[in-house]
Design brief:
Blueprint lengths: L8 H19 L2 E6 L6 H14 L4 E7 L4 H6 L5 E6 L8 H9 L8 E5 L16 E7 L6 H4 L1 H4 L4 E5 L4 H4 L3 H11 L5 E3 L8 H13 L1
Helix pairs in contact: 1-4
The structure holds magnesium ion and zinc ion.
Length: about 220
C-alpha cells in the first residue's frame, strides 16, 4: 500500500490555492488578496475601489474574512456584485480551503475582479496563499512608520503596498522616509500607493495599477 503524506498544513494549503487560481483563471477573474492590521482601511479601500471599477463596466465580488460579525459584508453589500463573509470564529487568517468553499458559492461568470479582504492581522495571513493573482499589503499612518520593519514578513510577498490615511501625515508626524528606508531592505519590486480613502487622494494611481495588472 502506498501512502501519500501531505507534509504539512502549508503544503495542503498551497495545493488548494493552486486549484482556486485555476478556477479563477478559467473564469477570467483576477483576484487580489488584501492583508493588513485591523483598522488600516481594507474595507474602506474596497468601498472606493469597487464603485470606481463598476463605473468602467468592471464587476467585482468580495470575500471578507473576519473573526465575527457581518459588518464588513454589510458595508460592501450594495457596492459589489456578490459578497461572501467568512467568519473564522477565532481563526486569525484565511485559508485556501475557506476561499474554495466561498468560491463554490460565487457565480464567477461576468466578474472581472475578486477581492479577498483577509482577517486583520500582520502575521500569519502572510504565509497562506489563497489562490490570488496579487497580494496587497496595506498600512495606515496611525499605526506608526515602523510597521514594515517590524512585520516584514507581510511585506515580503506583496505585489503592491498601500499606505492609507495620508491626510493624517502632518498631524501624526508620520515619517515616510522611515517606511521607504525599511522597504528598501524588504521589498523593492512592489509599487507603493500613498492614498487616502477619506479624501480620495491617490486613488487614481491605485486603480490604474489594478487595471494594468489585470489586462496583462
Ligand atoms: Mg474590514
Ligand atoms: Zn492566523
Amino acid at each position: 500500500m502506498k501512502i501519500n503524506v501531505v507534509k504539512n498544513v502549508l503544503e495542503a494549503n498551497d495545493a488548494l490555492a493552486a486549484e482556486n487560481r485555476e478556477k479563477l483563471d478559467a473564469a477570467g477573474v483576477w483576484c487580489v488578496n488584501i492583508t493588513s492590521a485591523p483598522g488600516s482601511g481594507k474595507t474602506s479601500l474596497l468601498e472606493k475601489t469597487i464603485p470606481a471599477l463598476a463605473a468602467k463596466g468592471l464587476a467585482s465580488a468580495v470575500i471578507v474574512g473576519d473573526l465575527q460579525t457581518t459588518r464588513d459584508a454589510e458595508r460592501l453589500g450594495n457596492l459589489a456584485a456578490q459578497v461572501t463573509q467568512i467568519n473564522t470564529e477565532g481563526g486569525c487568517h484565511l485559508t485556501a480551503s475557506q476561499v474554495a468553499a466561498a468560491l463554490a458559492g460565487l457565480d464567477l461568470k461576468g466578474l472581472e475582479y475578486l477581492f479577498i479582504e483577509n482577517v486583520g492581522n500582520m502575521v500569519c495571513p502572510a504565509g497562506f496563499d489563497l489562490g490570488e493573482h496579487a497580494r496587497v499589503a496595506m498600512l495606515s499612518t496611525p499605526e506608526g512608520d515602523d510597521k514594515a520593519a517590524k512585520y516584514n514578513t507581510l511585506f515580503l510577498p506583496a505585489d503592491a503596498i498601500v499606505l492609507n490615511k495620508i491626510e493624517l501625515i502632518e498631524a501624526l508626524g508620520y515619517d515616510k522616509s522611515r517606511l521607504y528606508d525599511d522597504l528598501k531592505k524588504i521589498n523593492t519590486a512592489a509599487p507603493v500607493f500613498e492614498l487616502s480613502c477619506r479624501t480620495g487622494e491617490g486613488l487614481e494611481t491605485w486603480l490604474a495599477w489594478l487595471g494594468a495588472k489585470r489586462t496583462r
